[in-house]
Write a structure and sequence with these properties.
heterodimer, A: about 375 residues, alpha+beta, Rossmann fold, OB fold (Dihydrolipoamide Acetyltransferase, E2P), 20 strands, elongated, B: about 280 residues, mainly alpha, MetI-like fold, globular
């Protein structure tokens, strides 16, 4: 396995369109790094530059300490799993799995195999080695019964396993995944996600994974790289990303439902908005002036009448089985969402008091960048 | 099937009969005696639709008389036709798919104008290029050899390049990227991934090229002068000139049947692929 280091990586297409800007990232040996962001944020382009499928126009890329900017994909010792599986339709599953190994044979000359008995013996040894590796990968992914089928005779989930198997069988330095679960239905996606995580635990391979699904990113990644408009917004472990988002974009992108924001001002130890007055944590960091306050929906709690710190109108109540989402509206017209446990006697259209821990408040600059203040 | 749709078959059957009748008549005449075939040709003995006493010996006798030497003329012509056709079919498939791949997947300056220029060559009638091409091949010293019939196939055929290009353009890009990561070079990608996936277009190219080259009369007539270089189409024409009289109509028909037999057999063998491929080439999906 290997390390991957991106230093000042950028991508400018012909015509001057910039897709990726100044990405700096060091992926440690055996680490699972997830690039996450909305469509068009440059995450796939970054991954494709690592794969060698897109030319790197700025910066340097090293895999295991070797500069690979101008190295073709086949010589980078990487394997990639694509969103639409990209299995060769005219080959059986077995041939799909062994194709990459066949291309890298040390004894691959058909003519020498015919005329040179020593060469033939070595080639046969290599045949056995390839067959064993294919069998191992198929065993690991549970696709042994399908080895002689063509991809068209497989379900979506089975095809995705074959695609992962094709990467696994080569034992590459780095695994790259480009939204591999996007074509699967919700149930299968969750199952495959768990299997991928288990596979990483088992192989301890270096993996880079691209997704637009923040939940997938949070569950899979040792470390997340949140991107927007071609720029890395924050690079940290999932807990840090959730608990201490670097800016308003990260705060709103990560977490479901999305974080609540209230524009206002801090004077002394109090946050004030048109219909809100909140005492801040006296032991927390100090901020002042115009700010945007952020509160996670799961940190808001319905409170008894007259005892809460916030008062809002309950507009819509959504039962989700194990939890309830409350769509609320402050008097000043700012919408809020509260995620709570079911059981409270709440009625739509009635006012509701909400409580929260001052330590759970996030403060962001009120400007366009919206950087975290505390 | 309802009553209205059944009527559709009436014109179809009539059309099929009209198309098949000359073929049937040719086979029937080829099995007749010289007298009856000659008389039937000028309408004197009535139309022959079923030989009373099939003369199967007409076939070996007719084939033996093709060319100046007994049997040699026919066997030479058959060998020449097979060589020209097989090499041309293989060369057209390889070159057209490779160029179509380039136009579909390679990014290079002038790709659009070059593709348009290539398509424009399809508009040129062959008569326009006939004399310049003859002068070119004469300059190369290739006249009276099979080279002028074979070598151009290695440079692609505009129509088939267009078909390959359209087919390849609808194959997902990720497949090519996966192959590149798996270790394929550009040529390896074409050979191992693309050609097997383009089988419907390969089948169309093979059948159409086979039929065209096997039946081609004009090019061999222009470039081949010696008897031992003639293809079947040219040899058949010489045979017609030699035995054009009414006394040898049955022989002429026998040689004609043998000449067209490979095309008919090929069509039956490749019919499914051909119809399937035409559909796939026309509709994206």
């Amino acid at each position: 396995m290997a390390t991957v280091e991106l230093k000042g990586i950028g991508k400018v297409y012909e015509g001057g369109v910039r897709a990726v800007q100044d990405v700096n990232l060091a992926v440690a040996d055996g680490e699972f790094v997830v690039l996450v962001g909305p469509s068009g944020c440059g995450k796939s382009t970054t991954l494709r530059m690592v794969a060698g499928l897109e030319e790197i126009t700025e910066g340097s890329l090293t895999i295991d300490g070797r500069l690979v900017n101008d190295v073709p994909p086949r010589d980078r010792d990487i394997a990639m799993v694509f969103q639409n599986y990209a299995l060769y339709p005219h080959m059986s599953v077995r041939q799909n799995l062994s194709f990459g190994l066949e291309r890298r044979r040390s004894y691959g000359s058909a003519i020498r195999r015919l005329v040179d008995s020593g060469y033939r013996a070595k080639a046969r040894g290599e045949d056995g080695e390839i067959a064993a590796r294919v069998a191992d990968a198929a065993q690991t992914l549970g696709i042994t019964p399908y080895l002689d089928r063509k991809p068209r005779a497989l379900s979506g989930g089975q095809r995705q396993r074959v695609a992962v198997g094709r990467a696994l069988v080569r034992d590459p330095k780095v695994f790259l995944f480009d939204e591999p679960l996007s074509n699967l239905d919700a149930k299968l996606r969750m199952e495959t996600r768990t299997e991928l995580k288990a596979l990483h635990r088992q192989t301890r391979a270096t993996m880079m994974y691209v997704t637009h699904d923040q939940e997938e990113a949070m569950t899979l990644g040792d470390r997340l790289v949140v991107m927007k408009d071609g720029v890395v917004q924050q690079c940290a472990d999932p807990v840090t990303i959730y608990e201490r988002p670097a800016n308003r974009f990260v705060a709103s992108f990560v977490g479901t439902p999305t974080m609540n924001f209230i524009e206002g001002e801090v004077r002394g130890d109090t946050f004030r908005a048109p219909s809100v007055e909140l005492r801040m944590d006296p032991t927390g960091p100090r901020v002042s002036g115009p700010v945007v306050l952020g509160i996670r929906p799961d940190r808001l709690r319905p409170a008894g009448a007259g005892t809460g710190r916030l008062r809002a109108q309950l507009r819509v109540l959504e039962h989700l089985g194990d939890r309830v989402d409350l769509a609320l509206m402050l008097d000043c017209g700012t919408p809020l969402v509260c995620r709570t446990a079911p059981g409270a006697h709440l009625r739509e259209g009635e006012p509701i008091d909400l409580d929260l821990d001052p330590a759970d408040l996030h403060f962001f600059a009120a400007d366009e960048q919206g950087l975290r203040l505390a | 099937m309802n009553r209205a749709s059944r009527w559709v078959y009436v014109p179809l059957v009539l059309g099929a009969v009209a198309m098949l009748f000359p073929l049937w008549w040719m086979v029937a005449l080829s099995l007749e005696t010289a007298e009856r075939a000659g008389a039937a040709t000028v309408g004197a003995g009535g139309m022959v639709l079923w030989p009373d006493d099939a003369q199967w010996s007409n076939y070996p006798e007719a084939l033996a008389q093709v060319g100046s030497e007994r049997w040699t003329g026919f066997l030479d012509a058959m060998a020449n036709s097979i060589v020209v056709t097989v090499v041309t079919v293989v060369a057209t498939i390889l070159s057209s798919s490779l160029v179509g791949f380039g136009f579909a997947r390679m990014r290079f300056r002038g790709r659009g104008p070059l593709f348009t220029l290539m398509l424009a060559t399809m508009m040129l009638p062959p008569q326009v290029t006939m004399i310049p091409l003859f002068l070119l091949f004469r300059g190369l010293g290739w006249v009276d050899s099979l080279l002028p019939l074979i070598v151009p196939a290695f440079f692609g055929n505009a129509f088939f390049i267009f078909m390959f290009r359209q087919f390849i353009a609808q194959i997902p890009e990720a497949l090519f990227e996966a192959a590149r990561i798996d270790g394929c070079s550009v040529l390896g990608l074409w050979w191992r991934i693309l050609l097997p996936m383009c089988m419907p277009v390969v089948a169309i190219t093979a059948v159409f090229t086979f039929i065209f080259v096997w039946n081609d009369f004009m090019s061999p007539l222009i470039y081949l002068h010696s008897d031992d270089q003639a293809t079947l189409a040219v040899a058949l024409n010489a045979f017609r000139n030699q035995y054009g009289g009414l006394e040898a109509v049955h022989y002429l028909m026998a040689v004609s049947v043998v000449t067209m037999l490979p095309c008919i057999l090929l069509f039956f063998v490749a019919q499914k692929q051909l119809v399937d491929g035409l559909g796939k080439g026309a509709v994206k999906g």
